[in-house]
């Protein structure tokens, strides 16, 4: 399979994943995962595993899913899926990095292309449907039946499972990428042992990663041998990095616990904290308790827990930043807009701060400021669908309907939904014909140009069917 064909196939699948109710664009977790993912990509480039052709043609994007199952998966074209359930069971960033390095190596070694090539007699659309059906089967066998019959789903699942040789190669290459990127290789072994233990004790289907990446004694021994040969200082479990990871794992646990019972359990854990509880456990419980309380609409309790966390972590910059972001988030969710704004750095250009501040200023009547802020952002980050959506809301608040509709279209382009984008652009052109663009000739010109460009993408998409 050529790299171009694999890229197109990956975009088909990514387009459906964006539509999946489990897809989540959480700026805090996306930023955290990206900070782990980028060094791995750079290490793969340095080692020659990631060629310039693949680097240029493939997406290299990690999509988060709020599914509670412990799963991660590589897809054609450099797309990766990561369930929050997996993030929530990791103890260190090194463990999470080990999974990402392993999945990255499946892509750079063209394992997915080889598996898909086994079905080269099928049309690309059918192959995409088969992969989506297999992913659905890993999450929910009933959901899979909406895409494939049960027998087909089992057959496709078997076809898409990586061979033992591929797994060992991804272990070997991934281990090298992980260490070159500066992560503790012990994370590879500890994550492997955690999954291996789960494979022995858990048969409930909560660990679908085990079915596609079978844990074997041979693989475990190989990794242990590699670790013995690697001289590197072990990660301190009480380090600032470990503390920040504990907060991110807690966030993943809350966001993947959709039901009321799950949120109540997290609140109970925070409420039962003992004074002498270990610092990591205490910080994670306060973080989870605050976010869970906010989701249960108890703003007072959410703010109390977040403030306690911030007070306890002021001397640890990374943890203090996450606590401050949490306090701003729960304050804004509870209508305490001014409090949220005082907690956010007005000059920060990190995505979580920027989007939270934009939402807070929008809620407090600062639509014009938000529009200026996000115009600059999307000029350099055109694939940021959430930023386009907030920008659209800012334009609507100012009565700039034409610009708002165009921003809505750009959000759909970022999500690869070209049909929806064309619909919005056509709506904008209709507004122009009715005189809504009076005086805004530059915007009208942009809309005409973008309509032609996105229609071209839509035609290409249709031809691939």
UniProtKB/TrEMBL annotation:
<dbReference type="GO" id="GO:0016020">
    <property type="term" value="C:membrane"/>
</dbReference>
<dbReference type="GO" id="GO:0004222">
    <property type="term" value="F:metalloendopeptidase activity"/>
</dbReference>
<feature type="domain" description="Peptidase M48">
    <location>
        <begin position="60"/>
        <end position="226"/>
    </location>
</feature>
<dbReference type="Pfam" id="PF01435">
    <property type="entry name" value="Peptidase_M48"/>
</dbReference>
<protein>
    <submittedName>
        <fullName>Peptidase M48</fullName>
    </submittedName>
</protein>
<dbReference type="InterPro" id="IPR011990">
    <property type="entry name" value="TPR-like_helical_dom_sf"/>
</dbReference>
<keyword id="KW-0378">Hydrolase</keyword>
<keyword id="KW-0482">Metalloprotease</keyword>
<dbReference type="GO" id="GO:0046872">
    <property type="term" value="F:metal ion binding"/>
</dbReference>
<dbReference type="InterPro" id="IPR051156">
    <property type="entry name" value="Mito/Outer_Membr_Metalloprot"/>
</dbReference>
<keyword id="KW-0645">Protease</keyword>
<dbReference type="GO" id="GO:0051603">
    <property type="term" value="P:proteolysis involved in protein catabolic process"/>
</dbReference>
<keyword id="KW-0862">Zinc</keyword>
<keyword id="KW-0479">Metal-binding</keyword>
<dbReference type="InterPro" id="IPR001915">
    <property type="entry name" value="Peptidase_M48"/>
</dbReference>
């Amino acid at each position: 399979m050529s790299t171009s064909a694999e890229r197109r196939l990956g975009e088909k699948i990514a387009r459906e994943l964006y539509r999946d109710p489990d897809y989540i664009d959480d700026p805090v977790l996306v930023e955290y995962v990206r900070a782990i993912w980028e060094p791995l990509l750079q290490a793969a480039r340095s080692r020659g595993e990631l060629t310039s052709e693949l680097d240029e043609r493939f997406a290299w994007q990690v999509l988060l899913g709020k599914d509670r199952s412990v799963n991660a998966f590589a897809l054609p074209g450099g797309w990766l899926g990561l369930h929050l359930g997996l993030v929530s069971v990791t103890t260190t960033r090194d463990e999470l990095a080990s999974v990402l390095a392993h999945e990255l190596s499946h892509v750079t070694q063209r394992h997915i292309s080889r598996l898909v090539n086994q079905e080269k007699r099928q049309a690309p659309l059918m192959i995409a449907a088969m992969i989506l059906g297999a992913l659905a089967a890993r999450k929910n066998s009933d959901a899979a039946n909406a895409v494939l019959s049960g027998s087909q789903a089992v057959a496709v699942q078997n076809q898409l499972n990586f061979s033992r040789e591929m797994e060992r190669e991804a272990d070997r290459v991934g281990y090298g990428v992980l260490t070159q990127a500066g992560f503790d290789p012990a994370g590879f072994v500890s994550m492997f042992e955690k999954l291996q233990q789960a494979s022995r004790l858990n048969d409930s289907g909560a660990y679908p990663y085990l079915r596609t990446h079978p844990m074997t004694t041979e693989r475990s021994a190989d990794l242990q041998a590699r670790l013995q040969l690697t001289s590197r200082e072990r990660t301190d479990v009480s380090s600032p990095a470990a503390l920040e990871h504990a907060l991110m794992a807690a966030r993943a646990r809350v966001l993947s616990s959709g039901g009321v019972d799950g949120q109540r359990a997290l609140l109970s854990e925070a409420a039962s904290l003992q004074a002498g509880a270990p610092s990591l456990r205490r910080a994670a419980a306060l973080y989870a308790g605050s976010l869970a309380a906010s989701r249960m609409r108890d703003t007072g309790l959410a703010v109390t827990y977040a403030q306690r966390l911030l007070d306890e972590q002021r001397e640890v910059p990374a943890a203090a930043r996450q606590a401050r972001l949490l306090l701003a988030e729960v304050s804004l969710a509870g209508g305490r807009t001014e409090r949220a704004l005082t907690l956010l750095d007005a000059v920060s250009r990190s995505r979580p701060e920027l989007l939270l501040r934009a939402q807070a200023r929008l809620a407090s009547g600062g639509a014009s400021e938000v529009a200026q802020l996000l115009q600059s952002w999307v000029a350099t980050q055109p694939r940021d669908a959430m930023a386009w959506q907030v920008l659209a809301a800012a334009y609507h608040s100012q009565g700039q309907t034409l610009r708002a509709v165009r921003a809505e279209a750009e959000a759909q382009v970022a999500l690869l939904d070209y049909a929806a984008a064309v619909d919005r652009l056509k709506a904008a052109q209709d507004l122009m014909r009715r005189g809504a663009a009076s005086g805004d000739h530059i915007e009208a010109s942009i809309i005409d140009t973008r309509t032609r460009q996105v229609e071209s993408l839509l035609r290409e998409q249709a031809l691939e069917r």
